[in-house]
Amino acid sequence: MRENERKDLPDVETGAAADMDAVMRKYDRESATRIWTGKPKIVVSAVSALFSLYCIWSTLWSTADLPIRLTAFLGLIVIMGYLNYPARKGHVTPNAMPWYDIVIMALGAGAFFFYCFRYTRLVKVITSAAKIDPSNPDAAAGAWFYVILGIVGILCLAELCRRCVGLPILFVVGALLVYTFASGQGLPRVVYTLFFATSGVMATPIQVCAKFIAVFIVFGAFLERTGISNFFIDLANCAAGSSSGGPAKVAVISSALCGMVSGSSVGNTVTTGSVTIPMMKKTGYKGEFAAAVEAAASTGGQIMPPIMGAAAFLMAEYMSTSYANVALKAILPALLYFTGIFLAVHLEAKRLGLQGVPRDQLPKMKLLIRSIYLLLPLVVLVVMVSTGTRTLQFSAAVAIVLTILVSLPSIYLDSRRQDREGFAVHAAKDLGAMIGGSLEAGGRGCITVAVACSMAGVVAGCITVTGLASKLVSAVVNISRMIPNQALAMFIALFLTMLCCIVLGMGVPTTANYCIMASTCAPILITLGIGKIPAHFFVFYFGIVADITPPVALAAYAGSAIAKSNPMKTGINATKLAIAAFIVPYIFAFNPAMLLVDTNALEVIQIVITSLAGLFGVAAALNGTLFRKMHPVLRLALAAGGLCMMSPGTLTDFVGLAVVAGVCGFEYVAAKKI
């Protein structure tokens, strides 16, 4: 019997992997890639791996001018992008690449490489493309060549964006281009601004991507292959697996930890959800709730320091501060977010009377401690970045080397078990496969982020060349003057910004969403009196929650596919679980103390305690059960008291505490009498 089980096991594992791949292809554009096998696969994998090595070399040692490095970076991105992403999402024919994709890839990459290799000669000529003089036919013909070159490069990037990012951001780009031409800007000047200058495709987003984000994506790919995700899941099981409704709490903790090194809410949902969602359903949670827990927790991984889905580097650039400062300010809001989900899960478990996993079925802490060395690269990275001893790029490179070193024990043991005589050869092959696979995955992971950043640069370029940002700011300021109450005017501006972020973020990577909002909406909020840091965190948060907000809640839909639950109900449950993400941004917008701005240690402690108590009140009100099923009036009172405590301020804290304590006391006494 056991032999038969062992024979069937690979098929089961293969089937599970195929199911995960199918879910990722359906809900995550980044996973809907071409299928390469045999020698073509080796070539494509080698291109991605060499790109990762180029990124590491370029960020650490290259002294070339910025446009040279950026155009080389984008040219390689175009090649990898078209090698990996077909024109249609359902294209899965192995080793097939249509001739028109080859032509588009060659034209797009050629445009950027032409600029790269002839930069020293072009730098003196391309400015004439912005002001073509018809009276000089020879000069005009040469200038028009560069205009066409720029158009080809931008269009090829836009098509790649459609394939791997989606249409929403292209709609924004298209609308802004129409406005740009309607405002009187000529084609040569627009192309010059968007392609040749560093205020378009090569603007701040792609500069940050090429300089920082790419190396950290490669680091994340290495870290994932050490087995750290399994370590986080086992650690979460040890911490909370045996408590009431333990598997759901494990999902929250493990997704928060895995999210530190993952930049995809859908990918995180599928990866950890394939383990935690079946566990939650087995415990007694409904499929919609189990999938919602995983989706909400996985989406929150993008606000979890230190990586924060790669957006932290862009935030540092836009806010003119250090990356370590951004990560520090993100800690408290992230803590509140995950605590809110944890409380909701606990209350639901108590309402349903669910038990945890028996301790004898959980990983042993003693065995888990043996794998704690896997955290070394992450710890060293955080220390180096927070102390500022080295640059971000150098810190990431050191962390990559450490990741390779910490993977050696497991590779050695696996090879030793498989072949006692030739284990050294097997170990060397496994190590090579680990390094090659990590470099390949890192290169592929850069494609979507780089393309999104380049399109966000086009948005910024259109705004710059037309002066649209200042016009929007003036319009909003004039409207706000019509509203006598300044706080109400600010709230309306925040609410409209929230809607813009959520709508634009539907199906769009967080990085691209943040770049666009940072260029358009954040300056408006700053003009209305909200600080630069709260304004940027506000648009960042609401760009993220789009992944769990219906009707296009991709992370929730991916979770529902695993749980085999209703997608829309899953999205609604995920939104309720992530209620903190809809409340906290308004709080730090009106009082930035939650972001550690203009505050002190005593005030921070007060904020932490009262906000956690307030979250309990809101979570209990949404759940409807405390010690018994609550009356609707008491639920409203509990929600109001919780919101009061989440709003920084001594008076609101006392009022909220009195209301929440009063409701809890009343419910406890009433439940005892039953």
Q: Give the overall pLDDT as a whole number.
A: 81
Tell me the overall shape. globular
The total count of helices amounts to 30
Give the fraction of residues assigned to helices: over 70%
How would you summarize what this structure contains?
This protein is mostly helical and 674 residues long.
What would you say this structure looks like, in words?
- Helix 13 (287-300) packs across helix 26.
- The model is unreliable at 1-15 and 133-139 (pLDDT under 50).
- Helix content is 76%, strand content 0%.
- The chain has helices spanning 2-27, 38-61, 66-84, 99-117, 119-122, 137-164, 168-182, 187-196, 204-224, 228-240, 246-259, 265-283, 287-300, 311-318, 323-329, 331-352, 365-369, 376-387, 392-418, 423-466, 468-482, 486-504, 510-527, 532-544, 554-563, 567-577, 579-590, 601-623, 632-646, 650-673.
- With 674 residues, it is mainly alpha-helical.
- It is built from 30 helices and no strands.
- The radius of gyration is 26 Å and the shape is globular.
SSE arrangement:
Blueprint: H1 2-27, H2 38-61, H3 66-84, H4 99-117, H5 119-122, H6 137-164, H7 168-182, H8 187-196, H9 204-224, H10 228-240, H11 246-259, H12 265-283, H13 287-300, H14 311-318, H15 323-329, H16 331-352, H17 365-369, H18 376-387, H19 392-418, H20 423-466, H21 468-482, H22 486-504, H23 510-527, H24 532-544, H25 554-563, H26 567-577, H27 579-590, H28 601-623, H29 632-646, H30 650-673
Helix pairs in contact: 1-12, 1-25, 2-3, 2-9, 2-20, 3-4, 3-20, 4-6, 6-8, 6-20, 7-20, 8-20, 9-14, 9-19, 9-20, 10-11, 11-12, 11-13, 11-16, 12-13, 12-25, 13-16, 13-25, 13-26, 14-15, 14-23, 16-27, 16-28, 18-19, 19-20, 20-23, 21-22, 21-23, 22-23, 22-24, 23-24, 24-27, 25-26, 28-29, 28-30, ...
